[in-house]
Structures are given as C-alpha cells and as structure tokens.
Amino acid sequence: MKRDMILITGASSGIGRAIALHLAAPGVLLHLGGRDPDRLEAVARDCAARGARVLTRRQDVRDVEGMAEWIGGAGPLDLVFACAGITASTASRAAGAPREAPGQVRRVLDVNVGGVINTVLPALETMSGQARDGRGVRGRICAIASVAGLVAFPGTPSYCASKAAVDRFMVATGGNTARDGILLSSVCCGFVRTPMVAANDFPMPGLTEVDDAAAAILRGVAAGRRRIVFPWWLVAGSRLMDLLPPRLAELYYSRQPAGQAGSMPETGGMSS
User: Fold this and answer.
1) DSSP 3-state assignment of 48?
2) Is position 253 annotated as part of the catalytic site?
3) What's the average pLDDT block by block, 10 residues per block, for the chain (272 residues)?
4) Is-contact 154 90, C-beta < 8 A?
5) Is 194 within 8 Å of 210 (Cβ atoms)?
6) GO CC terms on record (predicted)?
7) Given 3.10.310.10, 3.40.50.150, 3.40.50.720, 3.80.10.10, which CATH number is that of 5-91+98-265?
8) Which of 70, 159, 169, 230 is flagged as catalytic?
9) In 3-state terms, what secondary structure has residue 200?
C-alpha cells in the first residue's frame, strides 16, 4: 500500500492522531486537519520527530468550501482518513421522555455525516486524476463509522443515525469507485480508548486501545476491505440484535447503562 501522501481529518486527537503517528516516517507527507491548533501542533511535532514532513490546517469539517480548498490544494493523495466526529446522548426533561435538543441533532449530523461527505467528495476528485499504481489503485479513502451505526440505540439516536449513514455511503459508493481504482473503507468499530469516551462512566464491552485500533484500520485499508470491523463479536451481536423487532430490542437497550439519558455529553465530544 503506497502511503507517501496522506490527509487526515480529526488528527489532533483519538483515532486520527493514532493513525498519523502510525504512518509518520521519512518520505511521508502528512496533511493534518483539526479544530484545536495546540493539540494539532503537538501531533505534528510528534510525527515530525518520526521523520515525516507535516502540514497542519485548522479546519472545521462542516465548512464545505474550506474543506474543498484544503483537500483540492493538497496535491496528490495516496490515503485520506475521515476521522473527525462527535457523540452525544439524550437528555432528561422536566416533563416527558428523554430527548435530544434540536441543535444537538443537527450538529451531530452536520459533523459526522456532512464532515465525511466534505472530505470524501473532494478526495475523490483529486484521486480521479491520479495515475493507477501497479495494482490498479489510484488512492484509498477511509471513514470512521461505528458499531452504533448497525443498531437503533435509544440513548444516542442522532449518533446511531449519523454512523449508519457514513457506513452505507462508504460501502455503497465504494462499489462504484473501485472500478475507477479508488478504494473506500468504512470502519465499524466498538468503543476505542480515546478522549471521546473518557467521560463514559459505564462498562464499555470490547474496549480497544487506540493504537490497536489504528493498526487494525491500517491493515484493513491495505487489504482493500470495504468494511473494517472490530471487535468482530460485538459487531456480529449488534447485527443480530438489529434483526429483532424494535420494541424487543429496546427492552434490552433501555436497561443498559449507556442507554440512560445523559450517559454521554449532551453537546457532544469532538474527536478532533
């Protein structure tokens, strides 16, 4: 897998940071984007210490024009990783059932879905003009979805919806782009030890260390897998749960600690 020119969103923290550090090496050019300039520069220093050339950009993935300018002006790209994302849960109300605030729903969808679209579309344009390598590949694009996208979890409705959209978009679009030599991958993973889940005060089955997650993602991308899953048993169990009638599944989900209102930050925790 050619990995000389790489662009990563959400690179200042979590999975994006871990992928950047894994790929940093002499001869590698890293384009790193994020919203926190101090953390982004810290990651850039660590990557540069490993021999990589690093260019950083403070960039909100919701900015359509800004993303197009950044990615379109980056030059040739071998690998693109859409790692920026947020999570949030329902909140208790004085009267009635728990619910997400309208602004929170829109923000989660704008960042998690819109941010991926704003990354993938200009990356596709760039890669479409590149020559194929010896294996017929022009470039590879990977987006971080989630096992949450495979279920309808009442504690995090907009998060589940956003990750389902990311997974379906990447998997379905990848069937077309593969014929043009551009390989797309969706990552359906469980809990990964990152700042995003640091405040969770409930059991997180299958919790994966962030370096292990980055290594699994890179192996999957190198193998050209359309959907990268881990831990497999959590993803398999989630798929089985989603076959149940919604009311039966909710009886289980609503009794889990993560299904309670306020189990995650109400306004969402950025992974970038």
Assistant:
1) helix
2) no
3) 92 96 98 96 98 97 98 97 92 83 95 98 98 96 96 90 98 97 97 81 84 97 97 92 90 74 53 44
4) yes
5) yes
6) membrane
7) 3.40.50.720
8) 159
9) coil
